[in-house]
Amino acid sequence: xxxxxxxxxxxxxxxxxxxxxxxxxxxxxxxxxxxxxxxxxxxxxxxxxxxxxxxxxxxxxxxxxxxxxxxxxxxxxxxxxxxxxxxxxxxxxxxxxxxxxxxxxxxxxxxxxxxxxxxxxxxxxxxxxxxxxxxxxxxxxxxxxxxxxxxxxxxxxxxxxxxxxxxxxxxxxxxxxxxxxxxxxxxxxxxxxxxxxxxxxxxxxxxxxxxxxxxxxxx
Length: 219
Ligand code: GRF
Known about the structure:
Layout lengths: L8 E7 L4 H13 L3 E8 L5 H8 L4 E3 L8 H14 L4 E4 L8 H6 L4 E5 L11 H8 L3 E8 L9 E8 L6 H24 L3 E3 L5 E3 L6 E4 L2
Parallel strand pairs: 1-2, 1-4, 2-3, 4-5, 7-10
Antiparallel strand pairs: 5-6, 6-7, 8-9
Helix pairs in contact: 1-6
This protein binds 5-O-phosphono-beta-D-ribofuranosylamine.
5-O-phosphono-beta-D-ribofuranosylamine binds next to helix 1, strand 5 and helix 6.
């Protein structure tokens, strides 16, 4: 008998905290019946609320506290082993607050996906909303990209942009960008699940049948 799960692409999700992106991805995948299997959710923080949510959904979870390891290399080596046991097609970073070593990243070339709260290549790193306001940009947003060993760089899969409003504060901007993340990241995971995303040798992304990889979010 054929296994209906066999055609599903396998995803491991890495989180550190509340996991709202993970929740949106998994809920929308289930509602939309995408060919996606979420084979393990792993957190480096034992009290991450996202882990409780994943457990309540009956998903396989694991906690790997980075503080238990003597070095970043040792943590990353164990994490890579845990991930490889699941034979994933993709590893989704969803609010995973650890910088990964080049050795780890190279083990998962073109499989490691991240969401960053800015329109890359602008505002890599932290405090993106405050820095966007300080720079006076008229547009801001979020980016889903493949991870390379250069922080917040790597092939851009898709972006969601929105207008910065006159009375925006870092908090109000963060809130609207998070709503945009909850649209963008699930959309990209649907494309990945459907096998539509290709990355060429120069690191450019093509999504079969998709003419624009930018979503515009009305404020
Ligand atoms: C998001 O803003 C994401 O862009 C950033 O960390 C936050 C994670 O939020 N990398 P959540 O854990 O998905 O709710």
